[in-house]
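Practice problem: predict the structure.
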Amino acid sequence: MPENQTRLSTEEIEDRIKQLGRFSRFVRAGLGVILFAFLLAVVGRLPYNLDSVASAVDAVLMPTIFVGMGLLLYGIGMHLHVMHLNLVAQLRMRRADDEDGDS
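Answer:
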């Protein structure tokens, strides 16, 4: 550990984790926006480009790529959220062990 960094106490870590809980909601909201934009592109652009298969694919290719990227980011965000929950559980077990050892 670098000299200028001190080890965080359990309380400080728990305070930081409480501040991070809202990011799971942001990840879901971001995925919702991407899916809404995809549906808007399909409904708004696809009917005007049905004269050929190539133009239909061109109309929805970029939105489909964005949906794929959004799903990847959603997976990453949910993975981080699960890691966060695991950390919270470990901190609670550590705190319970500390309290049992003190009594």
